[in-house]
Recover the amino acids of this structure.
């Protein structure tokens, strides 16, 4: 296959890959599980340093699927950091915690808890995933169509049908590959939402079961007291 065709396909792949990368970033900002990428847009204001990116003020680590830990490089970043995250993601639960064994009253680290996925949030998230997917797919379809036309103009001078077919097949293989990636990204995000929703349902079931057990125990104790009173 000629270098000009390889260059054309590579050019197209740059654009298609860019659309998918943007979708991944937007999906990260839907915030179901812990993803440091969701904090990239937060800007921290400091009196001395001015406006800073999140990575300039703290170290971010994923504690588990639903919690992140932020360790400020300087205690003065604590509250500006909280404020910056609140502005970008008010749905996060924030908790400033003093390190165990620390004697410094100003030393704190920040724990972020991802919001629970109840029925309303589940439905809203699924809608958002679909809207963002459709927008990305539309861009991929439009760009793919543009490059199919560009390819046709280039291969018209090819001497054989075999060479023309090879060039077309290479372009379509690349387009299909990006569509598969796009579909996988969407499927992974939906799975993430469904897992978080099931976690919420399990927690609600556990709470109800605990409340029922307490109510039953209270009823049993009340019944025993009534029998005692009667016996007396």
């Amino acid at each position: 296959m000629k270098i000009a065709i390889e260059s054309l396909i590579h050019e197209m792949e740059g654009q298609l890959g860019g659309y998918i990368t943007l979708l991944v970033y937007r999906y990260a900002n839907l915030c179901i599980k812990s993803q440091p990428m969701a904090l990239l847009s937060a800007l921290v204001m400091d009196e001395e340093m001015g406006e800073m990116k999140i990575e300039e003020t703290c170290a971010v680590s994923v504690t588990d699927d639903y919690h992140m830990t932020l360790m400020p490089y300087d205690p003065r970043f604590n509250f500006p950091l909280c404020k910056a995250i609140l502005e970008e993601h008010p749905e996060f639960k924030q908790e400033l915690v003093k390190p165990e064994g620390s004697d410094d009253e100003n030393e704190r680290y920040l724990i972020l808890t991802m919001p629970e996925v109840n029925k309303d949030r589940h439905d809203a998230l699924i809608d958002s995933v679909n809207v963002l997917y459709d927008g990305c797919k539309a861009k991929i379809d439009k760009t793919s169509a543009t490059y199919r036309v560009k390819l046709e103009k280039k291969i018209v001078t090819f001497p054989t049908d075999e060479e023309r077919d090879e060039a077309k097949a290479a372009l379509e293989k690349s387009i299909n590959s990006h569509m598969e990636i796009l579909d996988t990204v969407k499927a992974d995000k939906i799975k993430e939402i469904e897992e978080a929703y099931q976690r919420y349902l399990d927690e609600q079931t556990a709470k109800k079961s605990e409340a029922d057990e307490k109510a039953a125990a209270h009823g049993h104790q009340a019944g025993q007291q009534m029998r005692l009173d009667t016996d007396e």
